[in-house]
Specification:
234 residues, outer membrane lipoprotein receptor (LolB), chain A, twelve-stranded mixed beta sheet, 5 helices, disordered C terminus
Length: 234
């Protein structure tokens, strides 16, 4: 099973100082991207993006109908509904259908890092690399387990933004990891979000598996009811 802990945390649990430092770095990163109060008002996000999967791994991993897609993704922060409206074909996926649960949960999660990790009970500073502090976040226990993923946030010391996140992919493959590189930060309502996500198998790799280019992002008061004739459900 994939394990993102550094070697020293495989031999011992984090110290109280490492846990406190990790929590403070996470809070500072959230503040640098708008703050927890602003995220609390981000209740019904809508993100329009172009999505492309590349290479052999991309073709194997792509969850969408095609390797290139133009999507309007809407979700409710309470988890009650996520909808993916394909703008290049008459098709809509809904979380209530129970067919595409993994991908309809994964995209909002990555788009809302680091905010989503505020409720992680296991957080610790695990070291530094050049100009970055590294923070590990997970649930229940720092040791790898099937129920929860591990995340390692690379936090820039100057901007305090999360510029990359390593993560495990427990729901799909217990051995797999990925790295999402966050670029092109822009204002989206009260938040500062990366409008480009470049996903590789390992940190800072030039071999791109997946790229998301966001065109627009906002929070709407509610997710509109899909009208009859808007497209086929799958």
């Amino acid at each position: 099973m994939a394990d993102l802990r550094p070697e020293h945390l495989k031999a011992r649990p984090p110290t109280e100082e490492e846990s406190q430092r990790g929590r403070e770095l996470l809070r500072r990163a959230v503040d640098a991207q708008g703050g927890a109060d602003a995220w609390a008002r981000w209740t019904a996000p809508e993100v329009i993006f172009r999505d492309e999967w590349r290479g052999i791994v991309g073709r194997f991993s792509c969850p969408w109908p095609a390797l290139k897609n133009h999507v309007r993704l809407q979700w409710r922060r309470d988890g009650s509904l996520t909808e993916a409206h394909f703008l290049d074909r008459p098709e809509t996926w809904r979380s209530t259908d129970g067919t595409h649960d993994f991908i309809l949960a994964a995209y909002p999660y990555l788009m809302e890092l680091p905010f989503r990790l505020l409720d992680a009970p296991k957080v610790a500073w695990i070291g530094e690399r050049e100009q970055y502090d590294l923070v590990l976040a997970t649930w229940e226990t720092f040791e790898p387990h099937a129920q929860h993923d591990q995340f390692v946030l690379w936090i820039d010391r100057e901007s305090h933004r999360v510029v990359m996140a390593e993560y495990t992919i427990r729901d799909k493959y217990h051995w797999a990891t990925g790295a999402d590189h966050f670029e092109d930060f822009r204002r989206a309502g009260p938040l500062l979000l990366p409008f480009r996500h470049t996903i590789t198998l390992r940190p800072w790799s030039d071999s791109v598996v997946h790229r998301i280019e966001i065109e627009a992002a906002r929070s709407v008061e509610r997710l509109a009811e899909t009208q009859d004739g808007d497209g086929a459900d799958h």
